[in-house]
């Protein structure tokens, strides 16, 4: 019986490996094939390097590459400075209202990028932006002082989102740092600034370096800001140039798009490898078995300037975008702030629009399906890679990580080629199923990492205990393991939900008539509808995100257990 169970698990794990390979590999392989095929997807062609020659023989391509690196590097540098300082302030200092700041600063991370871009287009548009109008009226200026359609505007909007990302990635490192190391430096005569620069920052350097590289990759992959702000300004980077090559040209330049996509993938691989080397070559142990009590750094007369520094970010990243879109959605005429100008008619119009209702329905369906399907697949992968002695688990880990190197627009390009070229797959193109598969692929790296981290916390002895009490392997998996990793499953589910609701770059090339989602309709309405209607759609999207987050939080609270993972045996085992 034992041998039968082992063989069964091996067969099931092999089937899982084949399934993941079938999902992940076609976009990668067809992206490469498309770059050397010399013809549009699904059409007869021959092997050729003409796409690479066309792309890299043009000086324009090198300008696109330079723009991508410049924007990503500058916004990442600014975001790293801002995010690291904020993380240090709320974890290591006595800045006023630091607990409130600790809650509000990460909010920007959960706001869709398209939300920020649209809000600041309404605020800082050089022709009709509210802030520009206020400055021109107050100071008698003849031209707008701020122009969002510029490199500076793109960097500013992108840096707001990246700051929250950097904050979240470095917050834990600052919080876990042993304060005795800083106290030793101050005992030796170092001041607050000297201690920060010479002790604190070097100790959290791995977290900062890793966050910088991941944020830089995010900048290279960014789509919403380049499309909405960069394209009207004539500023092209990898992502909006790929989109332009496929949608703005007749015939579409598929070869150039795939050549640029392959370039992004190779750059992403290189940067992730650098991150691994940075974190793998040095030791930064700061948590030992010795207990300690956290002691905050006293900022003295710098307390309120530090508070203003943090509050400024909260206002720019959270209050202004949400406030602008909410206010705009309630106005008859944008910029007219009278009681009579407030109305709900734009909400009424939006909910009577068939496209909006269809997009809302599609988004909700895809969010639920992506959460269920993504978490199920992630749990299976995490279990096989952390629990079983399976011959292909390293390949399974690699396949689950590969989508991390594919930006949404590049994944969409690869899937476009795969599902129009591989026999039998074309029936999925333009349907909700291809969007479902795309969201699963895109969320797989985060889902597997979340579930693997939770899975390793469940000690093997709990499974052994269940087996001793007569439970089968499947019963143990269902009644013990899955019950104990439910917090991780809920966290993984929210990753997939967020991707399905807020992502624009993936469905932009894959949707068809009748399969529009909220992000697609939002982009279309920006070009066709008044800003008030656009604001209503953005608020609806934010409300949907907030609703799913609230459901996840309620379920997480209900499912929490007081016993430790490795402590007392939970009641589930007693009922076996």
Number of strands: 0
- Structural class call reads mainly alpha
Which percent band covers the strand fraction?
Answer: under 5%
What is the tally of helical segments?
Answer: 25
Overview of the molecule:
The structure is a single chain. It contains 25 helices and no strands. Mean pLDDT is 83; it is low at 281-291 and 561-576. It has helices spanning 2-37, 50-56, 59-92, 98-104, 113-124, 130-139, 151-176, 179-187, 192-203, 205-221, 224-233, 238-247, 254-280, 303-329, 345-350, 354-387, 393-401, 408-421, 432-455, 460-468, 473-484, 486-502, 518-528, 531-559, 571-574. It is globular. With 576 residues, it is mainly alpha-helical. Helix 23 packs antiparallel against helix 24 (531-559).
Secondary structure: elements and pairs:
Layout: H1 2-37, H2 50-56, H3 59-92, H4 98-104, H5 113-124, H6 130-139, H7 151-176, H8 179-187, H9 192-203, H10 205-221, H11 224-233, H12 238-247, H13 254-280, H14 303-329, H15 345-350, H16 354-387, H17 393-401, H18 408-421, H19 432-455, H20 460-468, H21 473-484, H22 486-502, H23 518-528, H24 531-559, H25 571-574
Helix pairs in contact: 1-13, 1-17, 1-18, 2-13, 3-4, 3-7, 3-10, 5-11, 5-14, 5-24, 7-10, 7-11, 8-9, 10-13, 12-13, 13-18, 14-24, 16-19, 16-22, 19-22, 20-21, 22-24, 23-24
Notable traits:
single chain; mainly alpha; 576 residues; globular
Short description:
The chain has helices at residues 2-37, 50-56, 59-92, 98-104, 113-124, 130-139, 151-176, 179-187, 192-203, 205-221, 224-233, 238-247, 254-280, 303-329, 345-350, 354-387, 393-401, 408-421, 432-455, 460-468, 473-484, 486-502, 518-528, 531-559, 571-574.
């Amino acid at each position: 019986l034992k041998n039968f169970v082992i063989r069964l698990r091996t067969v099931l794990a092999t089937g899982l490996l084949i399934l993941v390979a079938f999902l992940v590999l076609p976009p990668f392989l067809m992206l490469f094939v498309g770059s050397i095929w010399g013809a549009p997807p699904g059409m007869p062609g021959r092997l050729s390097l003409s796409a690479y020659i066309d792309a890299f023989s043009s000086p324009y391509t090198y300008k696109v590459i330079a723009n991508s690196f410049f924007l990503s590097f500058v916004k990442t540098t600014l975001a790293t400075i801002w995010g690291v300082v904020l993380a240090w302030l709320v974890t290591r200092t006595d800045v006023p209202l630091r607990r409130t700041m600790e809650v509000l600063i990460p909010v920007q991370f959960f706001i869709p990028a398209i939300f920020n871009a649209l809000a600041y287009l309404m605020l800082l548009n050089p022709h009709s932006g509210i802030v520009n109008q206020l400055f021109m009226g107050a100071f008698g200026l003849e031209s707008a002082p701020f122009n969002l359609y510029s490199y500076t505007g793109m960097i500013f909007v992108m840096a707001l989102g990246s700051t929250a990302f950097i904050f979240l990635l470095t917050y834990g490192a600052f919080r876990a740092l042993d304060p005795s190391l800083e106290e030793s430096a101050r005992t030796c005569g170092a001041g607050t600034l000297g201690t920060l620069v010479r002790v604190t920052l070097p100790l959290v350097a791995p977290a900062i370096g890793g966050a910088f590289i991941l944020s830089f990759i995010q900048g290279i992959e960014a789509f919403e800001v380049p499309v909405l702000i960069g394209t009207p300004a004539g500023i092209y980077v990898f992502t909006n140039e790929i989109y332009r090559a496929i949608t703005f040209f007749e015939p579409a330049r598929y070869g150039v798009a795939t050549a640029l996509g392959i370039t992004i993938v190779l750059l992403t691989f290189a940067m992730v490898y650098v991150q691994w080397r940075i974190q793998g070559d040095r030791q930064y142990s700061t948590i030992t078995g010795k207990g300690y009590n956290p002691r905050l750094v006293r900022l003295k007369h710098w307390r309120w300037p530090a508070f203003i520094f943090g509050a400024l970010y909260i206002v720019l990243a959270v209050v202004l975008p949400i406030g602008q879109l909410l206010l705009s959605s309630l106005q008859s005429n944008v910029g007219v702030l009278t009681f009579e100008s407030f109305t709900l008619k734009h909400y009424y119009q939006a909910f009577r629009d068939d496209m909006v209702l269809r997009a809302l329905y599609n988004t909700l369906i895809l969010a639920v399906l992506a959460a269920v399907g993504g978490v199920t697949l992630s749990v299976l992968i995490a279990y096989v890679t952390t629990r079983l002695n399976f011959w292909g688990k390293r390949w399974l880990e690699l396949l689950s990580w590969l989508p991390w190197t594919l930006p949404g627009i590049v994944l969409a390009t690869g899937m476009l080629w795969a599902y129009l070229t591989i026999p039998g797959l074309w029936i999925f193109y333009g349907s909700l199923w291809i969007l479902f598969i795309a969201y699963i692929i895109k969320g797989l790296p985060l889902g597997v990492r979340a579930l693997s981290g939770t899975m390793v916390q469940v000690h093997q002895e709990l499974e052994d205990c269940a087996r001793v009490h007569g439970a089968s392997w499947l019963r143990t998996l269902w009644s013990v393991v899955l019950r104990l990793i439910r917090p991780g499953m809920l966290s993984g589910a929210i990753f997939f939900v967020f991707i399905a609701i807020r992502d624009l770059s993936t469905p932009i090339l894959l949707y068809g008539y009748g399969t529009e989602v909220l992000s697609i309709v939002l982009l279309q309405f920006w070009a066709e509808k008044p800003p008030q209607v656009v604001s209503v759609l953005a608020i609806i999207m934010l409300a949907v995100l907030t609703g799913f987050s609230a459901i996840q939080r309620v379920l997480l609270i209900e499912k929490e257990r007081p016993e430790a993972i490795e402590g007392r045996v939970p009641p589930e085992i007693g009922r076996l």
